[in-house]
Amino acid sequence: MQELHGEKPGKAKKERTPMPEQPAEERRKNFNEVALGYTKEDALAEASRCLSCKDPKCVEGCPVNVDIPGFIKLVCEENFEGAIEKIKATNALPAICGRVCPQETQCEALCVLGKKGQPVAIGRLERFCADYEREKGVKSPEVMPPTGKKVAVVGSGPAGLTAAADLAKLGHKVTIFESLHKAGGVLSYGIPEFRLPKEIVRQEVEYIKKLGVEVKPNYIIGRIKTLDELCDEFDAVFLGTGAGLPNFMGIEGENLNGVYSANEFLTRVNLMKAYDPEYDTKVRQGKHVVVVGGGNVAMDSARSALRLGADEVSIVYRRGEDEMPARREEIEHAKEEGITFRLLTNPVRILGDEKFNVTGVECIKMELGEPDKSGRRSPVPVEGSEFVVPADVVVIAIGTSPNPIIFKGSEGLEQNKKGTVVADEETGATSKCGVFAGGDVVTGAATVISAMGAGKKAAKAIDEYLKEK
Amino acid sequence: MAYRILEKEEIAPSVHKMVIVAPDVAKAAKAGQFIILRIDERGERVPLTIADFERETGTVTVIFQEMGKTTKQLAKLSAGDSLEDFVGPLGTPADVRKLGTVILVGGGVGVAPIYPQAKAYVNAGNRVISIIGARNKDLLILEEEMKKASSELYIATDDGSKGHHGFVTDIMKKILDSGEKVARVVIIGPPIMMKVGAGVASPYDVEILVSLNSIMVDGTGMCGGCRVTVGGETKFTCVDGPEFDARKVDFVQLMNRLAMYRGEEAKAVEKYEEECRCGLH
After folding, report:
1. A216 vs A171, A400, B186, CA distance in Å?
2. How many C-beta atoms surround the C-beta of residue A136 within 10 A?
3. CA–CA separation, A48 vs A76, rounded Å?
4. How far apart are CA B10 and CA A266, in angstroms?
5. b/e string for A279-317 if b means 16 or more Cβ within 10 A?
6. Which of these, A69, A265, A20, lies nearest to B223 by C-alpha position?
7. Rg, Å, chain B Cα set
8. Average pLDDT of the segment spanning B121-125
9. Which of A250, A257, A278 sits opposite B42 (nearest CB)?
10. Is residue B98 within 8 Å of B182, Cβ to Cβ?
11. Nearest C-alpha of chain B: how many angstroms from A220?
12. Which of B28, B83, B35 lies closest to B54, judged by CA?
């Protein structure tokens, strides 16, 4: 054991093992995955850095409490099957989490090694284990004997899939209702192929199906059936409908042709594969693309536009780089690929020609003023600093809100002003009996893993609710 | 999951009627709503208004005109074939209630969505005056069905080959001028016809509704591609509509937005037809 760890604890290498990547020059022209994944040697080298802390802080930082030192120890022993089993005990979607979780603000942020050097690359190891298993063929998971209880899960995104997996493992009969033709929610329509290959999403969904979960695509709750009807038919309902409604800025010219919500732009590119000429869905391929916003969705949109063949893609963001909500890694990747960052810049109006096509974005320079309620310094316009950025495609990526369709024809579900569902943080219980909710529909747009964490907590609470019922 | 085509018929040159087995949709469908279908894995999501539905048999009828690549491909399918996806009912149902006399105006394939509305308005106890039209008599659809469904039916053709020689809106104006108390006018057809119709009816003391056919992807409010300005506010056709107060709709913007992919669409049709000639489809 000790030999496998190489150096003694305390002498762990300060630098983490780098992630093999497609070079920026190459990848900016294709939709293939950017990060290529650790080799076995990379994984062993990186795993050996883990100190196997007695009181592992990393686990506390994980919204689904993966036994991180436990699985890394098994990696060190080259028992990769054991490692993935350990991860899957609490995380049903490791291949996805290993790719898109913001580990740097969660598990890795609390790693002891991070104090003096770089934390263990937990996410990369998680991905390695998941990919190893996928190549070997995923084992059918163990499921408890049927309880005879039926649970409806609305939405097949990260929250819904996680809740469904946990409930199915406990022996409940789970049916997922998905409004689109493909399962996965934001994993399918939102996150691009180059960050999360859709084949991986498909296989993770297959794993959930193997647990006995039925997935009904093309099934819109609020249209085909109301939430109230679901409550009558099922013993419990979990709402994981996400935050799918795009926000717009409400500025002049926003309805010009060539102006997209990030949701539309990414759905056309990811779900409908508009980048592939063999597919019928179209997307306007801009030469000069402006993306408004500073989150991961803005980075995904900008990098997708570049891959569609744009000459210049710029991100327009009203605050500074430090205030950007996007993951550091995504910002770095975008920069490497040649995306221009126009910071402290805010769109004032969108300009168009006589044919109603967008021609540019009039922006104004901003400067940072006093800190606002969130503690971030709020940007203030600099008078007279207006200028025009030429653009033939503009993508608005300034956030999303919960989709209200689910609430149509249903009563007794408390919502707050922003349209999110009021739910108990620990259990996901809502004001409506037997209805639980979690993920973006409760929090507003957040991360894949926080939605999974909420799905997990709700599954536990639903199980307890069903036992008492 | 596949959705079987039960019947298919060319009811006018390049205009097809298709009956699809979709029990969940049929059970929930109401007049004024639409569906989105996808032919196969590589297909685009196409919104089509529901032309009829039967809850007992679990079928939904759509009527479409061959325009782009997808509708041309759709036209090649026959009874027994299946569609990859068929989702609905989408959109807010038409606000059908007892109003008195209602005029329903349908132009071209716009007669298809008018048909379930005629039935619904009559069921709700209204006197329904329907006016349907087309460029010529061959292109006129659902004449018999509309005759049965309506209290009164008028026909107009651009070339005068059947009924009134002129536009459906001429007949509508005549009725409004006659002094008959009309509570509501519903106009469905090509955007230019709805724009003209709305203009003609505007001076009268009557509610005017139009049903819009914007470009969209998901149909559930997620993409926002179908946004349209109504009364100075941005609305989503898929969830806020498809029916809107015609007096408030920015038709120019609607028409411009509908033209967004015209160039790409023409290329796709050309490519598809070339492939058809080569026997690839």
Report:
1. 19, 25, 35
2. 11
3. 6
4. 36
5. ebbbbbebebbbbbbbbbbbbbbbbbbbbbebebbbbbb
6. A265
7. 18
8. 97
9. A278
10. no
11. 7
12. B28
CA distance A181 to chain B (A): 7
- B257 in Cβ contact with A257 (< 8 Å): yes
B31, pLDDT greater than 90: yes
Rounded-to-integer distance, Cα A428 and Cα A424, Å = 5
Contact call for A281 and B44, based on CB within 8 A: yes
Contacts of A326 (CB under 8 A, 6+ apart): A294, A295, A296, A298, A299
Residue A251, chain B, CB below 8 Å: the answer is no
pLDDT of B276 reads: 86
Q: Which residue has the tokens 């539905």?
A: B53
B90–A224 CB contact, under 8 Å: no
Put simply, the chain B residues between 84 and 103 with a CB less than 8 A from any chain A CB are 84-90
Residue indicated by tokens 């390695």 = A128
Q: What is the C-alpha to C-alpha distance for residues A351 and A389, in angstroms, rounded to an integer?
A: 10
Find the helix or strand (DSSP H, E) in which A437 lies: strand A435-437
Mean pLDDT of chain A: 92
Contacts of A179 in chain B (CB under 8 A): 87, 218, 220
Is the dihedral angle over the CA atoms A132, A137, A143, A149 positive or is it negative?
positive
Per-residue tokens: A45: 């080298």
Mean pLDDT computed over A409-414: 86
Q: What's the maximum distance between 2 C-alpha atoms anywhere in chain A? A: 73
Q: Is A160 exposed, middle or buried (0-12, 13-18, 19+ CB in 10 A)?
A: buried
Question: What is the C-alpha separation between B113 and B49, in angstroms, rounded?
Answer: 6
| Chain B (36-65) residues lying within 8 Å, Cβ to Cβ, of chain A | 38, 42-45
- Pair type for strands A173-177 and A214-216: parallel
Q: Looking at the predicted structure, is the pLDDT value of residue A108 above 80?
A: yes
Round to whole Å and give the CA distance between B234 and B225. Answer: 11
Assess contact for A85 and A54: CB atoms under 8 A: no
Confidence of residue A10 (pLDDT cuts 50, 70, 90): very low
Cα atoms found within 13 Å of the Cα of residue A39, Cβ hemisphere only: 5
Determine the pLDDT at residue A6: 42
pLDDT of B177 over the 80 cut: yes
Contacts of A274 (CB under 8 A, 6+ apart): A268, A281, A282, A283
Dist CA B188 CA A386 (whole Å): 43
What tokens appear for A188 in the block? 């399918």
pTM: 0.92
The 3-class secondary structure across A351-406, one letter per residue, is EECCCCEEEEEEEEEEEEEEECCCCCEEEEECCCCCEEEECCEEEECCCEECCHHH
Other Cβ atoms less than 10 A from the Cβ of A21: the count is 15
Adjacency order of strands within the sheet including A435-437: A214-216, A173-177, A150-154, A236-239, A435-437
On whether the CB atoms of residues A186 and A157 are closer than 8 A, the answer is yes
Q: How many Cβ pairs closer than 8 A exist between chain A and B?
A: 110
Residues of chain B neighbouring A273 (CB-CB closer than 8 A): 42
pLDDT at A138: 77
CB A390, CB A381: distance < 8 Å: no
Q: Tokens for A414?
A: 């408390």
pLDDT for position A5: 44
Residue type, A259: V
